[in-house]
Amino acid sequence: MCISAYSAAMIAGGGQQAVAWDRAARQLVRAIRGERSQRAVSRRLGYRANPVAGWEAGRRFPTAGELLSACERLGHDVPRAFRVFHPPSAAALGTGSAPRVDAWLRELRGGTPVVVLAARMGRSRFAIGRWLGGETQPRLPDFLHLVHVITDRVSDLVDALVPIEAVPELLGAHRLRSAAKRLAMEAPWTEAMLRLMETEGYRALPVHREGYLAALLGLDGDEESAALQRAQEAGVIELRDGRYRDLTPSTIDTQAPPEDVARLRAHWSRVALERAAGPRGGDWLGYNLMSISRDDLEQVRGILRQAFRQIRTLAASSEPVETAALVNLQLVTWDERDAR
To answer: N or C: which end of the chain has fewer CB within 10 A?
Structure first.
């Protein structure tokens, strides 16, 4: 699981949930239509025929740009939805009736190699390259699938456009992600335990061994028991064949009120601080104190963001799952403008 760029991240290999992307696309079109008739919506969008009927039946699909333009024409606030979903990339979409889907996808993708996305999506790297380059636009099912392989949380984008309950194909994963998000905020160590449950070492245990997770994380047995109980009550794990299994999607977004995000960041920063004082063999810790121009500092910030996105995508498709790790990227500045 990778936690989004708004907090620390606990990295491990993430499994893929089977989704019928054609069905999800059909449901999304239907949700965007609302109470209007298919023919009325087609006319509202400027069509003489009734393509909306074909979109909902799955005979053909709109491109991502056509779908987003339709959202705007039908009163859905597309810019707001993209800001809610991923603020750093939202401006790349532009405004007006011709959304820049390729520019937004490039910004969202960051530095993740096309071959990685192609492998996760099961599509040709040439097709994905054409989408990212603006030569062609992905049809709606492919757009949803591509956003999924880049972020692992496409249901969050859908939920920002329409009520997620109207797209039942994505509802189950979305509910699990929401439960995992609450748990990550309230009991951060549960996230580390979920990641360890995905490793080959834990899966090789004949049954769950009390204290196994605690020993790896440097916790005591009571902390492990309390965390597992909370995770079970939240519905994000289940005990099956003697071992716990993680039920959550591989990525959750931890956007939340600033005070909650600050607490979560502080928790994982404290964990990193403790390991800095007593590092283990596999740890890598580095720092760089520098004097730098503000323009170059912005480049540093961009490099860190790109690295985070690449790490997130790499972790989501990593096999075999052999270990868990905390990646904690920080940039601390001393600028006289901030001190005023």
So the answer is: C
